[in-house]
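Input (structure):
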């Protein structure tokens, strides 16, 4: 996933705009939340700005950290490193915090520097192959756009909403209600949706472990031994499956619809059939006939 947004960092001055744990203001392009997750979990100041984490004492800044429990022995080393890193920070009450573009030495955004960031992160061959295969698929543009957003992890899952500081009633998967809702979990590893992928694997006669990351999972649908038509249908079914999962997810959240794996499988197969009927030349099989012999559809 291209994380160009991480190149925008706070230039710390008085610290009243920068979130201590969650914003990019320290060196290294990493938040303190990600660098010290153990300490973040027990902090009582998760959403405080830098300025709210301490005060000036005799013209020198002093931190006032607050924890919900005492530190365990195995956390002392992490805490020591944390205190050493924050000890060198001194605020300037006379100036405001400001955004700077970290990808350029002068801190000023340019399209050229942004392009270089994207180019570096797009270099892996699997990403290039994945997007070539996606845009070569003949289905409605709206469905292609959805798949593109999923492969980049740009859908408004609860994980992504949380990253954008959106307040959530809960961050759990609406299907299983037991795990954090990320794209990887919702679409591919939730035990509620796994039977959909298992059934598909029986149709294409593949006994394999499934990847959880969207791009790797998508690329698994390509078979070296398969024909071009077969591989195209596998990609179309994958997009139909993920589209159906997302629609069901929204129906569960916003319309209190129950989760039914049989309905999810049927919706996926019907959506696949409707796309093949509209975009594949000479495809005219009735749905009831086509859906009753699914293994034959991917030969």
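Output (sequence):
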């Amino acid at each position: 996933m291209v994380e160009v947004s991480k190149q925008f960092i706070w230039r710390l001055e008085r610290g009243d705009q920068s979130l201590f744990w969650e914003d990019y203001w320290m060196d290294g392009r990493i938040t303190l939340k990600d660098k010290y997750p153990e300490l973040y979990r027990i902090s009582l100041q998760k959403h405080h700005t830098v300025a709210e984490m301490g005060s000036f004492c005799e013209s020198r800044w002093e931190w006032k950290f607050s924890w919900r429990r005492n530190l365990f022995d195995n956390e002392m080393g992490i805490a020591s490193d944390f205190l050493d890193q924050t000890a060198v920070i001194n605020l300037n009450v006379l100036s405001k915090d400001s955004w700077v573009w970290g990808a350029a030495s002068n801190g000023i955004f340019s399209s050229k520097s942004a392009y270089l960031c994207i180019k570096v992160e797009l270099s892996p061959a699997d990403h290039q192959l994945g997007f070539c295969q996606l845009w070569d698929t003949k289905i409605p543009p709206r469905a292609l756009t959805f798949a593109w957003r999923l492969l980049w992890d740009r859908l408004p899952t609860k994980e992504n909403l949380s990253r954008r500081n959106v307040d959530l009633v809960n961050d759990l998967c609406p299907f299983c209600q037991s795990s954090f809702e990320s794209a990887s979990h919702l679409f591919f590893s939730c035990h509620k949706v796994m039977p959909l992928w298992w059934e598909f694997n029986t149709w294409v006669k593949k006994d394999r472990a499934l990847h959880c990351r969207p791009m790797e999972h998508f690329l698994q649908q390509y078979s070296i031994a398969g024909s071009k038509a077969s591989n195209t249908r596998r990609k179309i079914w994958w997009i139909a499956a993920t589209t159906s999962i997302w629609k069901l997810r929204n129906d569960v959240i916003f319309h209190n619809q129950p989760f039914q794996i049989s309905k999810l499988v049927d919706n996926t197969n019907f959506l696949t059939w409707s796309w093949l009927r509209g975009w594949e030349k000479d495809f005219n099989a009735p749905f009831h006939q086509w859906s009753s012999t699914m293994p034959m559809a991917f030969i």
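Notes: The two ends are 33 Å apart (CA to CA). The first helix runs from residue 32 to 35.
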